[in-house]
What does this fold into?
Amino acid sequence: MSTTRDVIIQSERFDQAAAFYRDVLGFQPTVENERLVGFETGSFQLFVEPGSRPGAVFDIEFDDLAAAKRLLLAHGCTIVDEDPSYPRCHVRDPHGLLFNIAER
It folds into this structure.
């Protein structure tokens, strides 16, 4: 398991959120498409997605995603959502923090 430098947020105002981080804060886009805009901030990479989930999502990669899900569920985590078309899973830990878990 290892963490990445990625922090993900969702916004119902996707275009406006992307414009804020690009134009107001001056972050340089590294990825731009209709589902995601990524910015290099220096210390971390910020990704903005369309959606309505509040708060930041931190990214953790595992060697075996299925084993990681079993481990986390056995220790009080809950699956918030999964997208079978993209090998990732959002998990909330027992303390309320939201993680994006993916396979390396």
